[in-house]
Amino acid sequence: MSYPQGQYPPPHQQPYGPPGQPYQGHPQWGHPQPGYSPQPPGYPYGAPPPANMPGKLLGVRITMFILGGIGLLFSGVCALVLWAGSEAGGGQTDLLADFPPEVFLVILLITGVYGVLSVGLAALMGKRSQAVWWLVVIFQGCAAVWCLWGVLAGNGGSSVPLIFAVALFGSLLPRSCREYYRGYA
């Protein structure tokens, strides 16, 4: 219905249809339309997952970045010690006097691999993939077992990394952390 320019419909007439009927041009709030699912796709179990990373997961992620950085730093120090020993003309330097170079090479490899994996997995934790969550759980479990093996073999220096690995592993298991990744491929 059109009205001449400058005129409006009479006040008793609804411009969008008969009185008491909602406007049919858009879906009404609280009333799902046919073919419309109010839940996100791939998430059939009730309320949607939290939008922000839970605090425990965020703590695990930050700690993994820090510990991975420390591992890479130790790896760099060991590489520097090995380089200094090789520059000394094959002779023993003060740093290598008590330990053979192979010890530093093993420490370089272990801390370097741990650092790269820890930083890499921490960077991937924001992707909300169940595969990433499982990789982090397995990584922390393996780190805990490795450190426990070191403690049981008599290496007291493995006790501090063991505490961190067990704490991080335990922080990954609460329901809120699992729900954050649930429903995502």
Describe this structure in words.
By secondary structure, this protein is mostly helical. The chain has a domain at 55-181. 55% of the residues lie in helices and 0% in strands. The protein has helices at residues 55-87, 101-124, 130-152, 159-172, 175-181. The longest helix is centred in the middle third of the chain and has 33 residues, at 55-87. It is elongated and about 100 Å long. The chain starts with 54 loop residues before the first helix and ends with a helix. The mean pLDDT is 80.
- How far apart are the termini? 52 Å
Chain oligomer state: single chain
- The geometry reads as elongated
Order of H and E elements: HHHHH
Gyration radius (Cα, Å) is 30 Å
Please give the count of helices.
5
Kindly estimate the percentage of residues that lie in beta strands according to DSSP: under 5%
**How many extended strands?**
0
Q: Overall pLDDT, averaged?
A: 80
Largest sheet: none
SSE-based structural type:
mainly alpha
Poorly predicted runs:
none
Q: Helicity level, as a percent range?
A: 40-55%
Biased composition (Pro residues): 7-21, 35-45
Keywords: Membrane, Transmembrane, Transmembrane helix
Region (Disordered): 1-45
Biased composition (Low complexity): 22-34
Descriptive terms for the model:
membrane, transmembrane helix, Integral membrane protein, 185 residues
